[in-house]
Protein backbone atom coordinates (compact mmCIF):
# COMPACT_ATOMS: atom_id res chain seq x y z
CA UNK A 1 0.00 0.00 0.00
CA UNK A 2 0.92 3.63 0.05
CA UNK A 3 1.13 6.14 2.88
CA UNK A 4 1.31 9.28 0.80
CA UNK A 5 -0.87 8.31 -2.14
CA UNK A 6 -0.41 11.53 -3.92
CA UNK A 7 1.78 14.53 -3.41
CA UNK A 8 1.45 16.93 -6.25
CA UNK A 9 2.64 20.52 -6.04
CA UNK A 10 2.87 22.46 -9.25
CA UNK A 11 3.57 26.05 -10.04
CA UNK A 12 2.58 27.23 -6.59
CA UNK A 13 4.08 28.93 -3.57
CA UNK A 14 4.77 27.40 -0.19
CA UNK A 15 4.07 29.71 2.70
CA UNK A 16 4.61 29.81 6.41
CA UNK A 17 2.49 32.28 8.35
CA UNK A 18 1.63 34.00 5.07
CA UNK A 19 5.30 34.50 4.12
CA UNK A 20 6.43 32.79 0.92
CA UNK A 21 9.28 30.42 1.78
CA UNK A 22 9.64 28.65 -1.53
CA UNK A 23 8.17 28.32 -4.97
CA UNK A 24 7.45 24.87 -6.32
CA UNK A 25 7.40 24.08 -9.96
CA UNK A 26 6.96 20.40 -10.43
CA UNK A 27 6.79 17.96 -7.52
CA UNK A 28 4.93 14.66 -7.88
CA UNK A 29 5.65 11.85 -5.45
CA UNK A 30 4.08 8.95 -3.69
CA UNK A 31 5.50 7.22 -0.64
CA UNK A 32 4.99 3.47 -0.24
CA UNK A 33 4.16 1.99 3.15
CA UNK A 34 7.27 0.69 4.91
CA UNK A 35 9.79 2.21 2.52
CA UNK A 36 12.49 4.79 2.92
CA UNK A 37 12.09 7.42 0.25
CA UNK A 38 15.03 9.78 0.33
CA UNK A 39 14.97 13.30 -1.03
CA UNK A 40 18.36 14.61 -2.10
CA UNK A 41 19.62 17.87 -3.53
CA UNK A 42 21.80 20.84 -2.72
CA UNK A 43 20.83 23.17 0.11
CA UNK A 44 18.04 25.50 -0.94
CA UNK A 45 16.47 23.02 -3.36
CA UNK A 46 13.33 22.77 -1.25
CA UNK A 47 13.76 19.35 0.32
CA UNK A 48 13.23 20.55 3.91
CA UNK A 49 10.33 22.70 2.74
CA UNK A 50 8.80 19.66 1.08
CA UNK A 51 8.98 17.63 4.31
CA UNK A 52 7.42 20.44 6.34
CA UNK A 53 4.69 20.87 3.75
CA UNK A 54 3.80 17.18 3.89
CA UNK A 55 3.40 17.48 7.67
CA UNK A 56 1.22 20.57 7.37
CA UNK A 57 3.77 22.89 8.98
CA UNK A 58 3.85 24.87 5.72
CA UNK A 59 0.97 25.51 3.37
CA UNK A 60 0.81 25.23 -0.38
CA UNK A 61 -1.49 27.29 -2.58
CA UNK A 62 -1.46 24.86 -5.50
CA UNK A 63 -1.48 21.10 -5.53
CA UNK A 64 -2.69 18.39 -3.19
CA UNK A 65 -1.37 15.97 -0.58
CA UNK A 66 -3.25 12.76 0.11
CA UNK A 67 -2.51 10.59 3.14
CA UNK A 68 -3.91 7.04 2.98
CA UNK A 69 -6.62 8.20 0.62
CA UNK A 70 -7.59 11.40 2.45
CA UNK A 71 -6.69 14.87 1.31
CA UNK A 72 -4.78 16.61 4.13
CA UNK A 73 -3.21 19.76 2.68
CA UNK A 74 -6.35 21.87 3.18
CA UNK A 75 -7.40 20.67 6.66
CA UNK A 76 -8.05 22.94 9.62
CA UNK A 77 -5.79 22.45 12.66
CA UNK A 78 -8.58 20.52 14.41
CA UNK A 79 -9.09 18.15 11.47
CA UNK A 80 -5.33 17.75 11.12
CA UNK A 81 -5.02 16.58 14.75
CA UNK A 82 -5.37 12.82 14.15
CA UNK A 83 -2.64 13.04 11.48
CA UNK A 84 -0.34 14.79 13.95
CA UNK A 85 0.05 11.48 15.77
CA UNK A 86 0.53 9.40 12.61
CA UNK A 87 3.05 11.76 11.02
CA UNK A 88 6.10 12.90 12.92
CA UNK A 89 9.25 14.81 12.14
CA UNK A 90 12.85 14.52 13.29
CA UNK A 91 14.88 17.67 12.75
CA UNK A 92 18.55 18.19 12.00
CA UNK A 93 19.40 20.12 15.11
CA UNK A 94 18.44 18.44 18.39
CA UNK A 95 19.64 21.54 20.28
CA UNK A 96 17.03 23.72 18.63
CA UNK A 97 14.21 21.20 18.51
CA UNK A 98 14.11 20.27 22.22
CA UNK A 99 12.75 22.80 24.69
CA UNK A 100 15.67 23.63 27.03
CA UNK A 101 13.33 24.40 29.95
CA UNK A 102 11.68 20.98 29.94
CA UNK A 103 13.04 17.73 31.33
CA UNK A 104 13.19 14.71 29.07
CA UNK A 105 10.16 13.31 30.88
CA UNK A 106 8.17 16.49 30.26
CA UNK A 107 9.26 16.58 26.61
CA UNK A 108 8.09 13.01 26.06
CA UNK A 109 4.99 13.04 28.26
CA UNK A 110 3.50 16.24 26.88
CA UNK A 111 2.49 14.89 23.44
CA UNK A 112 1.29 11.59 24.95
CA UNK A 113 -1.03 13.38 27.38
CA UNK A 114 -2.23 15.79 24.74
CA UNK A 115 -3.19 13.10 22.24
CA UNK A 116 -4.29 10.43 24.77
CA UNK A 117 -6.23 12.22 27.51
CA UNK A 118 -7.65 8.86 28.71
CA UNK A 119 -4.29 7.43 29.81
CA UNK A 120 -3.53 7.60 33.53
CA UNK A 121 -0.19 8.81 34.91
CA UNK A 122 1.29 5.31 35.18
CA UNK A 123 0.36 4.45 31.62
CA UNK A 124 1.93 7.67 30.37
CA UNK A 125 5.17 7.12 32.24
CA UNK A 126 5.30 3.48 31.14
CA UNK A 127 4.97 4.57 27.52
CA UNK A 128 7.76 7.12 28.00
CA UNK A 129 10.09 4.66 29.75
CA UNK A 130 9.52 2.10 27.01
CA UNK A 131 10.37 4.50 24.22
CA UNK A 132 13.44 5.78 26.09
CA UNK A 133 14.69 2.20 26.35
CA UNK A 134 14.08 1.67 22.66
CA UNK A 135 16.21 4.66 21.69
CA UNK A 136 18.97 3.70 24.11
CA UNK A 137 18.57 6.41 26.76
CA UNK A 138 18.17 4.93 30.25
CA UNK A 139 14.87 6.13 31.82
CA UNK A 140 16.80 7.08 34.98
CA UNK A 141 17.85 10.20 33.00
CA UNK A 142 14.23 11.29 32.48
CA UNK A 143 14.50 14.11 35.02
CA UNK A 144 17.47 15.68 33.24
CA UNK A 145 17.36 18.61 30.82
CA UNK A 146 18.43 18.47 27.15
CA UNK A 147 21.65 20.47 27.73
CA UNK A 148 22.88 17.75 30.09
CA UNK A 149 23.13 15.28 27.19
CA UNK A 150 25.57 14.91 24.31
CA UNK A 151 24.46 15.74 20.76
CA UNK A 152 23.96 12.08 19.94
CA UNK A 153 21.87 11.43 23.06
CA UNK A 154 19.86 14.53 22.34
CA UNK A 155 19.06 13.23 18.87
CA UNK A 156 18.01 9.92 20.48
CA UNK A 157 15.60 11.92 22.66
CA UNK A 158 14.24 13.73 19.57
CA UNK A 159 13.67 10.35 17.95
CA UNK A 160 11.94 9.14 21.13
CA UNK A 161 9.66 12.17 20.93
CA UNK A 162 8.79 11.23 17.35
CA UNK A 163 8.18 7.57 18.29
CA UNK A 164 6.24 8.10 21.51
CA UNK A 165 2.95 8.69 19.67
CA UNK A 166 3.41 5.45 17.74
CA UNK A 167 3.44 7.07 14.27
CA UNK A 168 3.30 5.40 10.84
CA UNK A 169 5.29 7.99 8.96
CA UNK A 170 8.38 9.98 9.91
CA UNK A 171 9.96 12.78 7.93
CA UNK A 172 13.59 13.00 9.02
CA UNK A 173 15.30 16.19 7.88
CA UNK A 174 19.08 15.63 7.81
CA UNK A 175 18.83 13.76 11.14
CA UNK A 176 22.54 12.97 11.37
CA UNK A 177 24.08 15.98 9.60
CA UNK A 178 24.72 17.97 12.80
CA UNK A 179 26.28 15.04 14.69
CA UNK A 180 29.88 13.91 15.11
CA UNK A 181 30.86 11.51 12.35
CA UNK A 182 31.65 8.91 15.02
CA UNK A 183 28.03 8.74 16.16
CA UNK A 184 26.23 9.25 12.85
CA UNK A 185 26.14 5.50 12.16
CA UNK A 186 24.64 4.79 15.60
CA UNK A 187 21.77 7.19 15.01
CA UNK A 188 21.24 5.85 11.51
CA UNK A 189 21.12 2.31 12.88
CA UNK A 190 18.65 3.40 15.54
CA UNK A 191 16.37 4.85 12.86
CA UNK A 192 16.64 1.72 10.70
CA UNK A 193 16.00 -0.50 13.71
CA UNK A 194 12.91 1.48 14.73
CA UNK A 195 11.66 1.25 11.14
CA UNK A 196 11.97 -2.52 11.12
CA UNK A 197 10.39 -3.04 14.56
CA UNK A 198 7.50 -0.65 13.98
CA UNK A 199 6.99 -0.94 10.23
CA UNK A 200 7.63 2.78 9.81
CA UNK A 201 7.68 4.69 6.56
CA UNK A 202 10.43 7.29 6.16
CA UNK A 203 10.78 10.40 4.09
CA UNK A 204 14.50 10.91 4.57
CA UNK A 205 15.93 14.30 3.66
CA UNK A 206 19.65 14.36 3.05
CA UNK A 207 22.45 15.84 1.01
CA UNK A 208 24.73 12.90 1.85
CA UNK A 209 24.53 10.58 -1.14
CA UNK A 210 26.57 7.76 0.40
CA UNK A 211 24.11 7.56 3.31
CA UNK A 212 21.17 7.75 0.93
CA UNK A 213 22.50 4.94 -1.26
CA UNK A 214 22.90 2.80 1.85
CA UNK A 215 19.45 3.25 3.43
CA UNK A 216 16.93 4.06 0.68
CA UNK A 217 14.44 2.04 -1.29
CA UNK A 218 13.80 4.94 -3.61
CA UNK A 219 15.33 8.36 -4.12
CA UNK A 220 13.87 11.64 -5.35
CA UNK A 221 16.31 14.24 -6.65
CA UNK A 222 15.26 17.85 -6.18
CA UNK A 223 16.51 20.98 -7.82
CA UNK A 224 14.94 24.39 -7.19
CA UNK A 225 11.53 23.22 -6.09
CA UNK A 226 11.28 20.45 -8.68
CA UNK A 227 11.62 16.70 -8.49
CA UNK A 228 13.76 16.07 -11.55
CA UNK A 229 14.25 12.34 -11.05
CA UNK A 230 12.61 9.61 -8.94
CA UNK A 231 14.00 6.10 -9.06
CA UNK A 232 14.87 3.03 -7.05
CA UNK A 233 18.15 3.58 -5.21
CA UNK A 234 19.77 0.92 -7.39
CA UNK A 235 18.69 2.51 -10.69
CA UNK A 236 19.52 6.01 -9.52
CA UNK A 237 23.06 5.19 -8.46
CA UNK A 238 23.84 2.91 -11.42
CA UNK A 239 22.01 4.70 -14.26
CA UNK A 240 21.18 8.30 -13.34
CA UNK A 241 19.19 9.84 -16.20
CA UNK A 242 18.60 13.52 -15.43
CA UNK A 243 21.58 15.80 -16.20
CA UNK A 244 21.36 17.24 -12.69
CA UNK A 245 21.42 13.79 -11.07
CA UNK A 246 24.40 12.91 -13.25
CA UNK A 247 26.21 16.05 -12.09
CA UNK A 248 25.41 15.36 -8.43
CA UNK A 249 26.63 11.77 -8.60
CA UNK A 250 29.78 12.60 -10.51
CA UNK A 251 30.79 14.87 -7.65
CA UNK A 252 30.95 11.93 -5.17
CA UNK A 253 34.55 10.81 -4.83
CA UNK A 254 34.75 7.09 -5.65
CA UNK A 255 36.58 4.80 -3.23
CA UNK A 256 40.12 4.14 -4.44
CA UNK A 257 39.72 6.18 -7.59
CA UNK A 258 39.28 9.58 -9.08
CA UNK A 259 35.89 11.22 -9.36
CA UNK A 260 35.44 9.97 -12.90
CA UNK A 261 33.80 12.08 -15.59
CA UNK A 262 33.09 15.03 -13.35
CA UNK A 263 30.31 17.10 -14.92
CA UNK A 264 31.02 20.70 -14.20
CA UNK A 265 27.99 22.84 -13.46
CA UNK A 266 28.08 26.32 -14.86
CA UNK A 267 25.88 29.27 -14.03
CA UNK A 268 24.46 30.57 -10.77
CA UNK A 269 21.83 28.87 -8.69
CA UNK A 270 18.74 31.04 -9.26
CA UNK A 271 16.57 32.11 -6.36
CA UNK A 272 14.02 29.58 -5.18
CA UNK A 273 11.29 32.21 -4.84
CA UNK A 274 11.41 33.39 -8.47
CA UNK A 275 11.97 30.26 -10.47
CA UNK A 276 13.38 30.35 -14.01
CA UNK A 277 11.07 29.64 -16.93
CA UNK A 278 10.94 26.20 -18.52
CA UNK A 279 13.27 23.63 -16.98
CA UNK A 280 14.61 25.13 -13.73
CA UNK A 281 17.98 23.56 -14.50
CA UNK A 282 18.41 25.12 -17.94
CA UNK A 283 20.89 27.78 -16.80
CA UNK A 284 23.36 25.13 -15.63
CA UNK A 285 22.59 22.26 -17.99
CA UNK A 286 25.08 21.33 -20.72
CA UNK A 287 22.20 19.95 -22.83
CA UNK A 288 19.82 22.92 -22.62
CA UNK A 289 18.15 24.10 -25.80
CA UNK A 290 15.43 26.58 -26.71
CA UNK A 291 12.59 24.24 -25.71
CA UNK A 292 14.17 23.80 -22.25
CA UNK A 293 14.03 27.57 -21.67
CA UNK A 294 10.40 27.79 -22.73
CA UNK A 295 8.61 24.66 -21.56
CA UNK A 296 8.47 22.96 -18.14
CA UNK A 297 9.44 19.30 -18.68
CA UNK A 298 6.81 16.78 -17.53
CA UNK A 299 7.65 13.75 -15.42
CA UNK A 300 7.76 10.64 -17.58
CA UNK A 301 8.23 7.02 -16.53
CA UNK A 302 10.95 5.18 -18.43
CA UNK A 303 11.01 1.43 -19.05
CA UNK A 304 13.38 0.99 -16.11
CA UNK A 305 10.74 2.48 -13.80
CA UNK A 306 12.75 5.68 -13.35
CA UNK A 307 10.65 8.83 -13.46
CA UNK A 308 12.45 11.75 -15.04
CA UNK A 309 11.47 15.28 -16.05
CA UNK A 310 13.78 16.24 -18.91
CA UNK A 311 13.14 17.22 -22.54
CA UNK A 312 16.58 15.91 -23.49
CA UNK A 313 15.83 12.43 -22.15
CA UNK A 314 12.43 12.44 -23.87
CA UNK A 315 14.04 13.47 -27.17
CA UNK A 316 16.72 10.80 -26.79
CA UNK A 317 19.61 13.32 -26.83
CA UNK A 318 20.65 12.96 -23.16
FE1 LIG B 1 16.43 20.64 -18.32
FE2 LIG B 1 16.70 20.57 -20.94
FE3 LIG B 1 18.79 20.02 -19.42
FE4 LIG B 1 16.75 18.29 -19.55
S1 LIG B 1 18.13 18.90 -21.22
S2 LIG B 1 17.77 19.00 -17.70
S3 LIG B 1 15.02 19.72 -19.76
S4 LIG B 1 17.74 21.98 -19.54
MG1 LIG C 1 17.40 21.86 4.80
Automatic annotation (TrEMBL):
Pfam families: ABC_tran (PF00005), oligo_HPY (PF08352). This is ABC transporter ATP-binding protein. The keyword Nucleotidyltransferase does not apply. One of its GO terms (biological process) is transmembrane transport. The keyword Glycosyltransferase does not apply. Belongs to the ABC transporter superfamily. PROSITE patterns: ABC_TRANSPORTER_1, ABC_TRANSPORTER_2. Residues 9-249 form the ABC transporter domain. Keywords: ATP-binding, Nucleotide-binding, Transport. InterPro entries: AAA+_ATPase (IPR003593), ABC_transp_ATP-bind (IPR050319), ABC_transporter-like_ATP-bd (IPR003439), ABC_transporter-like_CS (IPR017871), Oligopep_ABC_C (IPR013563), P-loop_NTPase (IPR027417). SUPFAM superfamilies: P-loop containing nucleoside triphosphate hydrolases (SSF52540). GO terms for molecular function: ATP binding; ATP hydrolysis activity. It comes from the Bacteria.
Amino acid sequence: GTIIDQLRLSGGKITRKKTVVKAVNNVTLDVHAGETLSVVGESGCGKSTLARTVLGLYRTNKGEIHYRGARIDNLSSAKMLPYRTKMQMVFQDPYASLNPRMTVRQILEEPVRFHNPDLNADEVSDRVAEVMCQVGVDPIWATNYPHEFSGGQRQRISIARALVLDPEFIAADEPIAALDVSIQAQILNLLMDAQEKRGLTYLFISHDLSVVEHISNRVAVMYLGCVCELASAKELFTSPRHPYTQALLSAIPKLGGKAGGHVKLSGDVPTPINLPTGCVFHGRCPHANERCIREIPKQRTLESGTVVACHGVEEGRV
